[in-house]
Amino acid sequence: MGERVLVLGLESSCDETAVAVTEGGRVLAETVRSQIDLHQKYGGVVPEIASRAHLEAVESLTEETLKQAGLTLGQIEGLAVTQGPGLVGALLVAVNFAKGLALALNLPIAGVNHVRAHALAPFLSLDSLSQDSLPAPQFPYVALVASGGHTSLFLVEDFLRFELLGQTLDDAAGEAFDKFAKLLGLGYPGGGVVERLARQGRSDAFKITRPLLREGLNFSFSGLKTQVMGLYNDNQLDQAPLDDQRLADLAASFQAAVVEVLVTKLTVATKRTGARGAALTGGVACNGPLRQAAAQALGQANLPLWAPPPAWCADNGAMIAFLGGLQLAQGHNLLDLAAEALPRWPGQ
């Protein structure tokens, strides 16, 4: 898994500032500062607010992370930073901070693809655990990265070789959850609150389509918002209290539609490519029914599912440090100090 070098990883692609120190796949220390409280009243991430919050947090989190690891900056051997994709203003905070450290400390620096880093998250382990005690993915495997900003399927052939199999054509899966939650007045972010409400509902109560279910490996979730809004209005749910059973039924039906689409395409991709298993990552991978359905579907095909703990499904610095360390060890994909953030990653 690459050289055992101490890498400081920095992540600021959206609304979480995250810093970690890794040595190979071992996570020595990590910190995350969420911005949920700053964006809740707006029902979504406000880019300008996110950028300012990253500016306020990145230096102190770096100091805190190093302290947790019992290290100094002078002991760090390489830097890794999310270069994209993401919100350009937010990305620039960590990118420029990492450039400053690289210049000051004369350290190599890797610009990391945030989505691909998610795909490798199942390789991470805590410093207190033996790597051998955790089942690591076997190449090649298919990775579904589902989050608020991305829904992508990769064939991961090796640590640094990724083939994009499919991606969302419009809304990401996590974005669909957020929009549904906003419609029902459940707050932001939507994933957790929708899952909790759905536990009380019937997943077959409302007929909701499964977009592109049998049509290739791309995704489309924007139409679900229109359809759910129609059901919401037709059933006059705007006047219903939050404990109305119909709201729970609608949440369960909506969640079931998203889960079925994600699991079906993950399973099809895994079988079609002849992969040795599949990985489920990204913030949406924290969803319990999704994890259960994916494990069951892969199990029926006698294939393993690798899903990292929820903390490593969400945006984190450990996955950035891990992939960045692999890039540095190979001596390529180095971030030139003149390079800028990439809100859209070329070719992906």
Plain-language structure description:
This protein has 348 residues and is of the alpha/beta class. The protein has two domains: 6-124 and 311-330, ATPase, nucleotide binding domain (Nucleotidyltransferase, domain 5, 2-Layer Sandwich); 141-307, ATPase, nucleotide binding domain (Nucleotidyltransferase, domain 5, 2-Layer Sandwich). It has eleven helices and eleven strands. It has helices at 36-39, 47-69, 88-105, 114-119, 173-184, 190-198, 222-234, 245-273, 288-300, 310-313, 317-330, and strands spanning 6-11, 16-23, 26-34, 78-84, 109-113, 125-126, 141-146, 151-158, 161-167, 278-281, 305-306. Strands 5-4-1-2-3-6 form a six-stranded mixed β-sheet, sandwiched between helices. It has a five-stranded mixed β-sheet with strand order 9-8-7-10-11. Strand 2 and strand 3 (26-34) form a beta hairpin. Helix 5 (173-184) packs parallel to helix 7 and helix 8 runs parallel beside helix 9 (288-300).
Q: What are the defining features of this structure?
A:
alpha/beta, single chain, six-stranded mixed beta sheet, 2 domains, five-stranded mixed beta sheet, Nucleotidyltransferase, domain 5, 348 residues, 42% helix, 18% strand
Oligomerization: single chain
The total beta strand count reads 11
Structural class: alpha/beta
Task: Determine Rg (CA atoms, Å).
Answer: 20 Å
Instruction: Give the CATH level 1 class of the largest domain.
Output: Alpha Beta
Low-confidence stretches: 128-133
Distance between the termini: 24 Å
Roughly what is the average pLDDT, rounded to an integer? 92
Strand share of the residues?
15-25%
Q: What best-fitting shape do the alpha-carbon axes yield?
A: globular
Strand order of the largest sheet: 5-4-1-2-3-6
CATH topology name of the largest domain: Nucleotidyltransferase, domain 5
How many distinct domains?
Answer: 2
User: What is the count of DSSP helices, taking H or I runs of 4+ residues?
Assistant: 11
Largest sheet: 6 strands, mixed
Report helical residue fraction: 40-55%
Reported CATH architecture of the largest domain? 2-Layer Sandwich
Instruction: Identify the CATH homologous superfamily of the largest domain.
Output: ATPase, nucleotide binding domain
